[in-house]
Amino acid sequence: MPDAALPAELRRARIAERVREDGILRVADAAAEFGVSEVTIRSDLGQLEAAGLVRRVHGSALPVPGGPREEPVERVSARDAAAKRAIGRRAAALVDSGTSVLLDVGSTTLAVAHALADRVDRGDLDELVVVTNGLSIALALEQAVPRITVVLSGGTLRPLQHSLVDPGASESIAGLHVDLAILGCNGVDREGRITNLNLAEAEVKRAMLAASAARLVVAESAKLGARHLGTIGVADAATTLVTAGPWPDAAAETAASLAALGARVIRADGGLEAGDHR
């Protein structure tokens, strides 16, 4: 898809990425790159500034000082590693042999991938089909082939996360119908909204939800109560959240809200399942 044909939301996501990665983006350069007018780019920057994602200066855009920034998946994987391993093992235990799974990109879903491969090594998981938009996810599962069939989505590479996004990713996922989507996120708020920092990846996550019969959200407890720009979906009775980590009031209140929406909440590090209180 040529840049000029990009949907406005995806174009703005790409602009925000460029600003974060390059440190500055000139309006004229962005207009030429995306094949739209400078007026359109200024409008995009205005919306991104209102969302707190960029700071406009004369003829250019800069990153927001101290604003949220994505980090390489390798660096994020080392943070809260014990909680992520616990989440990965508990989430992997919920996957049945002979099923199909969409496995999202991210540091916590990477822990799920490793746990799935471990189950195969132990001989208690077989004939699983995993479709993923994460290169790191595919490599983690490679050792489990052929007992796990690993399918990479199409899409455009985002180097920071080793992920495949639009153009290409959502279209390849839209033709699927899988048993379970396992998704990471940056936040789950008290209204049940599952959100993500990066808009391009949020778009692909929405496609995964639409292509699945059930969804399993994996997120450390620090993400409960948080909200970010890109909405992935809203928790419901088809949603299970697997979490781990310290349990502050924000996490407890969010878990209770999710249970009220019909979702199941599992604390992988030994806490109660909020779904038990529905």
Write the layout of secondary structure elements.
Elements: H1 8-22, E1 25-26, H2 27-34, H3 38-50, E2 54-57, E3 60-63, H4 73-77, H5 81-93, E4 100-103, H6 107-122, E5 128-132, H7 135-141, E6 148-152, E7 156-158, E8 163-165, H8 169-174, E9 178-184, E10 187-188, E11 193-196, H9 199-210, E12 212-218, E13 230-234, E14 239-243, H10 249-260, E15 264-267
Parallel strand pairs: 4-5, 4-9, 5-6, 9-12, 12-14, 14-15
Antiparallel strand pairs: 1-3, 2-3, 7-8, 10-11, 11-13
Helix pairs in contact: 2-3, 5-6, 6-7
Give the second-level CATH assignment, the architecture of the largest domain: 3-Layer(aba) Sandwich
| Percent range for β-strand residues | 15-25%
Enter the CATH topology name of the largest domain. Answer: Rossmann fold
Please describe the biggest sheet, giving its number of strands, its sense, and whether it closes into a barrel: 7 strands, parallel
Order of helices and strands: HEHHEEHHEHEHEEEHEEEHEEEHE
Rough outline: globular
Uncertain runs are: 274-278
Radius of gyration (Å): 19 Å
Mean pLDDT: 89
Give the C-level CATH assignment of the largest domain.
Alpha Beta
Instruction: Please indicate the count of domains.
Output: 2
Describe the structure.
38% of the residues lie in helices and 23% in strands. With 278 residues, it is α/β, with parallel strands linked by helices. The chain folds into two domains: 3-63, Arc Repressor Mutant, subunit A (Orthogonal Bundle), CATH 1.10.10.10; 73-277, Rossmann fold (3-Layer(aba) Sandwich). Strands 6-5-4-9-12-14-15 form a seven-stranded parallel β-sheet, sandwiched between helices. A hairpin with a 2-residue loop joins strand 2 (54-57) and strand 3. The radius of gyration is 19 Å and the shape is globular. It starts with 7 loop residues before the first helix and ends in an 11-residue tail after the last strand. Residues 274-278 have low confidence and may be disordered.
